[in-house]
């Protein structure tokens, strides 16, 4: 109850005109930044940080925090409409969001993304309000060994992400892991697979890769299959047509609640972030839902699973940031830099010594979350107009966005070349039935897995038993084995049942 009393005092701070405008501006900028492929919350907060130098610390952090969680809303727009994730957490949203667009259900997909984002974000903020310092303590229990087991669980489940046949998914996972190894070895410093190219020493940049594999491959598909991309023609879409009915809301709610809780707890883990949260939520809900087999074909449940988790993870990242000074993501690291720049020292004493700032920030997140969903829903009709543009005009526009987005990653034309090659490769892989999403997820997870592996072995002096001695790590490894065995066991049971039925019929 004491936390809620402090929260009400925080609303007094958050509802001042200056802080309210900061929430509104941050939410608007965050949605725009999230919707533009190639920028993302990390670059957005880093670029806008200098604009906050003359603000007071509370107002500045409120605006930067709003940019962070609003970015999750915006990332789904381009993922759903154009199959180009605005940021890495939106990769999972594109899996079901874009097929819904192909089915002339883009409005429903956008509304489902906005609603589940709001539910997930609200759950994350509520848990942050009630269990802020406690959540940070839970995050501390996940050391390198536990993170290795968690990432191994994620990587082994990628192959089963789309359909019952794991072969295409596993092949894509292996390709993604190999691409992630390009660059300097983080331990020895030796170059790997660089072929003497200086641009490859730092590895392949994620943004050009994701823009190429999702965006530019889409352009190639548009050029080769023009008739398949004029979804709506000149039809007008109103908000009424996008609103979910009772049955759809009923299907979305439990998934959003699960995604919100899972996303919050994954968001507090150091280095985990919203991408891993959205992936684990998607996979868990795929297994738990009655229509889990339909995930990947264009269902609102798949959109909700991803969006609720990445928004709640953004809220969860504030627990270790404020309570311990440990950033859970790259964007949180920028926010940590801002806090230190203004003389605020994150840690357990921040909640007592700077309670006005902490609770003002948390209260502003409730307000910002409401602003985000209102803005996001209101712009659905404008977003839908993109689908009325003929593919002959839309294709060069998307191609231009792809080039600008890839170049803006490092201001380097080499990244544009990577984007073009990635797009052509993704189109070829698609024709062979190999999906791009598992490849990109493996590309994101592999460097983290490699880093945590080396840290775990340094702690244990090379003893692999460390992964079995830690209770959380052992439990995750058991889940990993079960996850690998269960699909095979289910297939055999189904075959036996079919053979029994055939025998009875005979």
Detailed description of the structure:
Helices cover 74% and strands 1% of the residues. It is built from 23 helices and 2 strands. It has helices at 2-14, 17-35, 40-48, 57-82, 91-102, 106-140, 144-158, 166-180, 206-224, 239-242, 246-267, 273-288, 300-316, 318-323, 330-341, 350-353, 355-378, 380-384, 391-410, 413-431, 437-460, 466-469, 471-505, and strands at 183-184, 191-192. A two-stranded antiparallel ribbon has the order 1-2. Strand 1 and strand 2 form a beta hairpin. The longest helix is centred in the N-terminal third of the chain and has 35 residues, at 106-140. The protein starts with a helix and ends with a helix. 50% of the residues are buried.
List the main descriptive attributes of the protein structure presented here:
single chain; 506 residues
Strand order of the largest sheet: 1-2
Beta-strand percent range: under 5%
Q: What integer is the average pLDDT?
A: 78
Gyration radius (Cα, Å) is 23 Å
Instruction: Please report the total strand number as a whole number.
Output: 2
Shape: globular
Helix content estimate = over 70%
Largest sheet entry: 2 strands, antiparallel
Number of helices: 23
């Amino acid at each position: 109850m004491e936390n809620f009393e402090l929260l009400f005092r925080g609303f007094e701070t958050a509802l001042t005109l200056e802080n309210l405008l900061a929430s509104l501006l941050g939410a608007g900028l965050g949605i725009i930044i999230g919707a533009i492929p190639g920028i993302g919350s990390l670059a957005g907060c880093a670029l806008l940080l200098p604009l906050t130098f003359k603000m007071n610390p509370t107002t500045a952090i409120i605006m930067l925090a709003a940019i962070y969680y609003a970015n999750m809303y915006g990332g789904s727009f381009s993922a759903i409409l154009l199959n180009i994730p605005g940021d890495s957490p939106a990769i999972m949203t594109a899996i079901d969001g874009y097929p819904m667009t192909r089915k002339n259900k883009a409005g429903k997909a956008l509304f489902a993304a906005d609603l589940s984002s709001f539910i997930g974000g609200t759950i994350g903020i509520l848990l942050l309000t009630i269990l802020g310092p406690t959540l940070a303590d839970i995050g501390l229990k996940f050391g390198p060994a536990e993170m290795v087991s968690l990432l191994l669980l994620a990587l082994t489940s990628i192959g089963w992400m789309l359909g019952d046949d794991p072969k295409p998914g596993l092949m894509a996972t292996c390709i993604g892991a190999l691409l992630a190894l390009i660059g300097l070895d983080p331990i020895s410093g030796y170059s790997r697979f660089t072929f003497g190219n200086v641009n490859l020493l730092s590895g392949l940049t994620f943004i050009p890769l994701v823009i190429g594999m999702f965006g530019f491959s889409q352009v190639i598909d548009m050029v080769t299959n023009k008739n398949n991309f004029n979804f709506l023609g000149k039809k007008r879409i109103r908000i009424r047509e996008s609103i979910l009915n009772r049955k759809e809301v009923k299907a979305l709610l439990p998934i959003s609640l699960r995604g919100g809780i899972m996303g919050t707890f994954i968001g507090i883990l150091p280095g985990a972030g919203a991408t891993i949260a959205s992936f684990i939520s998607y996979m868990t809900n795929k297994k738990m839902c009655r229509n889990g087999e339909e995930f990947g074909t264009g269902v609102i449940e798949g959109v909700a699973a991803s969006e609720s988790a990445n928004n709640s993870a953004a809220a969860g990242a504030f627990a270790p940031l404020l309570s311990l000074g440990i950033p859970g993501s790259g964007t949180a690291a920028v926010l940590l830099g801002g806090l230190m720049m203004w003389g605020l020292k994150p840690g357990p004493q921040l909640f007592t010594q700077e309670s006005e700032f902490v609770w003002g920030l948390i209260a502003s997140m409730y307000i910002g979350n409401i602003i985000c969903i209102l803005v996001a829903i209101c712009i659905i009709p404008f977003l839908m107009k993109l689908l009325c543009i003929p593919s002959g005009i839309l294709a060069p526009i998307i191609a231009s966005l792809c080039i600008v987005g890839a170049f803006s990653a490092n201001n380097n034309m080499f990244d544009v070349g990577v984007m073009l090659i990635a797009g052509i490769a993704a189109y070829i892989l698609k024709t062979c039935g190999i999906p791009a999403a598992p490849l990109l997820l493996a590309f994101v997870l592999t460097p983290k897995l490699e880093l945590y592996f080396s840290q775990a072995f340094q702690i244990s002096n090379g003893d692999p038993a460390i992964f079995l001695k830690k209770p959380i790590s052992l439990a995750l490894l058991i889940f990993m084995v079960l996850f690998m065995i269960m699909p095979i066991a289910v297939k055999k049971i189904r075959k036996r049942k079919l053979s029994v039925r055939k025998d009875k019929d005979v």
